[in-house]
Amino acid sequence: GGQPNDWNQDDHVSLQPRRQRRTHVPDKPNYSLNLWSIMKNCIGKELSKIPMPVNFNEPLSMLQRLTEDLEYHELLDKAARCDSSLEQMCLVAAFSISSYSTTVHRTAKPFNPLLGETYELDRREEFGYRSLCEQVSHHPPAAAHHVISQRGWTLWQEITIASKFRGKYLSIMPLGAIHLQFHSSGNQYVWRKVTSTVHNIIVGKLWIDQSGDIEIVNHRTKETCQLKFSPYSYFSRDVPRKVTGVVADSGGQAHYILSGTWDDKIESAKIIQSSRGGSGSEGKQKTVYQTLSPKLLWKKYPLPENAENMYYFSALALTLNEQEDGVGLTDSRLRPDQKLMEEGRWDEANSEKQRLEEKQRAVRRRREAEASDALDEGKEYEGYQPLWFHQRRDSVTGETNFVYKGGYWEAKERKDWSMCPNIF
């Protein structure tokens, strides 16, 4: 029934011309620099305290890297439409793994954001979400991130990056929980990231591995997913970058097996029967699962053409530092050293980076002086407070985190950035 033209109403919406986003950045210049000459003074030091030239960077900030977690947002859009929370868990698990797919060739270091630096990504028109990050602490470096989607989900995280240089390799340990809530069911998922390792720091070709376990918990239903990222082993017959997982209900009964690799694809298979098999390694009993044939949950997009000369950026990464009107004055896109680096002007970028870091240190010294003056006079001194995030205790994990307090998108609408500090 209805009018004959009713059924294609949806088609009209998508006919507005989508904004064309850029598909390349200038090729990376071929500068050589001996990493060891810098690193040999740094063994055992916290990496964020070492003044690094941009030669080891990629022209994106850590806030933009964090935003790249959203590359496969459609997994969450799909998960929001699931009736079964166990199927939803499979998609959430695939989403948590997909955030590593971009790292496989990305051995360069993102810029350490300045305190108060922000990064927004407004993709509401195309994909229904908008995202905001803010650097909320400098030592240790911590960033808070908040994403809300009109397609039924909200994601928030506060990530502190701890890193240790261990001679031959570098360990990067992201600390902090990722929270994801679906609006219609109220299902709230929490998980943490695994350790990344950068190998061959001194000699040879740098390569990255991910290893460790992720436990994802749906706090409303108490369903869980246990994921295991197997570390690369020269002697193992396993496929490299392997990830396996089990999705279980609140009673611990397994319902799905997940398997694949973090740089290519993840599949799920529904369990129809499980039985205790023979003894596995270390004398433990192995569980043998009988499953239906596996279904593809997630597949990595191919890298853009010429990616190997563009820092191995994905199609999304290529657009992140594109200049945009109306963003906050503290936005990473406006950071001058990063922009110079992207343009291939590395010498200028290095001197600009030193200027910015010195400016930040001067502000910190002034704050410390004010704090000690206040102490001498017996006054209260309120330390540095981020603009868009405030600390709140999480009712689910009991941890205190920086969460979005609102106001950013409203300020953007009013075109009023008078509250922004001058950090660049």
UniProtKB/TrEMBL annotation:
Region (Disordered): 1-26, 340-364
Alphabetized InterPro entries for the sequence: OSBP_sf, Oxysterol-bd, Oxysterol-bd_CS
Alphabetical keyword list: Lipid transport, Lipid-binding, Membrane, Phosphoprotein, Transport
Main localization (coarse): membrane
The keyword Transport is annotated on this UniProt entry: yes
Superkingdom of source: Eukaryota
Name this polypeptide is given: Oxysterol-binding protein
Species assigned in the record: Cyclopterus lumpus (Lumpsucker)
